[in-house]
Amino acid sequence: MGSFSKRILSKLADSRSVTYFAAKIFSFNFNYKENYGRKKNKKSARNLKWTGTIIGSALFGLGLTFFKHHHEPHHRAGIFKSGLPSYTKEEVAKHTTKQSRIWVMYKEGVYDVTDYMEEHPGGEDMILQAAGRSLEPFWAIYLGHEDNDEVIDILEALRIGNLDLKPGEPVCESPEFKKNRCDYYNDPERHAVILKPLCMKPYIAGPSPEKLRENFMTPNSYCFVHNHIPVPNVDFSSYRLTVEIDSERKKAFTLNELKDMKQQCVKATLQCAANRSLEMSKEFERYVQGPAWEHNAAYTAQWKGVLLLDVLKAAGYREGDCPQHIEFESIECRQGNYSTSVPFCRVEDESNKVILAYEMNGEPLSRDHGSPLRVVIPGVAGTRWVKSLEKISLQGKESRSSWHQHHYKKLDCTFVGPEVNEIIVESAPAVEELPVNSAICKPADGEDVHTIGGKVEVKGYALSGGGQKITTVEVSGDEGKTWVPAKITHTDTCCPPYHFTWAFWTADVPVQKGRKFLHIWAKATDSANNTQPEKWKWNYCGVACNAIHKIRVFVLQ
């Protein structure tokens, strides 16, 4: 952790620790029924309830007092502060290099972010985009900043002055702000009932986990959506995919030219790298870098397209060429584009069935799912399945894009949050093959369940990365003391290491007579004998979250 971050976090420690402890007591108080197993000792439970309320209220009040003095509420961040010097927009605009110090604006505040550059999780390049300008247009795109306590606290610690505004002058550069907003106005219409949004700009949404278990091949309307930038609205007649082998060998393909090539169909499960990150975030009570997903960021579909290797050969690729990586770039918008890469050996093996897809479950790709063309890389995290492709190029090194270098990395568990610096993030490996995982879809956590013959029926899915097949799923109703084997009801027939779909499973978990609640755990093992760990390990980027899935249900006998 850098010295700057230590100074910031020390300011927050007192208020957060007291408030956190109070919240824990409240949580224990509200769950006293479970702690007493709903026994008949109502007097003891009642005493515990009132004791917890009194202590919790006292500590919570104390925490709020600290919080009031040490924390800058969202609505007060960036407002005018007396006693600070004032600077015009023209003065701020001169500070765009480390030599001149890098300044930015936020609402009515002026901030010197030079010393924070190396510690920014998104890298220095991201901050340099806003050098000498307002943060607001960028935060309108890269959401999760303005509503994040830690981000606001860090920003306010960098405050050096107020913005000197003329009467009636807008705080933000309104033309640019409007341009950024307008890109999202062109986003497609969505069904707000089927998918629950985590974020609207960019649009990120998923179905209820119970719905995922209803169909082995997921209907398109129930497939989660994770956009990183505004969704392009492509004119198919003018669309071109550029494939660059090297500086001398490149070719542009129309969509019809690609469709005229030999077709390939691939059945594959797409799983977001951050699937189940919400559970880990709750366990450690910390923010993750991106959206915190439930276990609903996965689906299985039939993809139709053309083998990527065939397209590369049509563009001039020869077997004697020795590229190390292949980079995929999306169609560019005003906020840039999304790009990432994978090792070329994954494409070179035809059995991996890496295709450029233009259909999903028998329908043309929707805009949210990558129209007109996306790359499908079975066995690899969804973050590498770039949507709305515009360019493919062979490289000697990994992609240098910020999306590849600063996101979807498996960091050491000692790095807890925004203090992670650019060097640490870049040195971490990019997530590709995701670990073995399983999730309980039915019943849901906290649900009331009925027993049938002294048992509770449990259903879920399991999957693994790298083409490994799920071999066993085990389910426990007593916090891992005993396990029952689940029956795998649906799976694909392909053999590992080319097995690219999830498995559905069901299990009947015995319930002891008189039990009022049940802790259900599920764990899977794959064909390489990998199994899920019992406990979480913190990862700030929120990826590869695969600890044993644990829920609690109440039993109605």
TrEMBL record:
DNA damage found in the keyword field: no
One annotated GO biological process: sulfur compound metabolic process
EC number in record: 1.8.3.1
One MF annotation (Gene Ontology) recorded for this entry: heme binding
A Gene Ontology cellular-component term: mitochondrion
Recorded metabolic or biological pathway in which this protein acts: Energy metabolism; sulfur metabolism; Sulfur metabolism
Cofactors that this protein relies on: Mo-molybdopterin
Enzyme class: oxidoreductase
Keywords, sorted A to Z: Heme, Iron, Metal-binding, Molybdenum, Oxidoreductase
Chain ranges of the Cytochrome b5 heme-binding domain: 84-164
The UniProt record lists the keyword Oxidoreductase: yes
Gene3D superfamilies: 2.60.40.650, Cytochrome b5-like heme/steroid binding domain, Oxidoreductase, molybdopterin-binding domain
UniProt xrefs under InterPro entries: Cyt_B5-like_heme/steroid-bd (IPR001199), Cyt_B5-like_heme/steroid_sf (IPR036400), Cyt_B5_heme-BS (IPR018506), Ig_E-set (IPR014756), MoCF_OxRdtse_dimer (IPR005066), Mopterin_OxRdtase_euk (IPR008335), OxRdtase_Mopterin-bd_dom (IPR000572), OxRdtase_Mopterin-bd_sf (IPR036374)
Protein name listed in UniProt: sulfite oxidase
Organism: Psylliodes chrysocephalus
Higher taxonomy: Eukaryota, Metazoa, Ecdysozoa, Arthropoda, Hexapoda
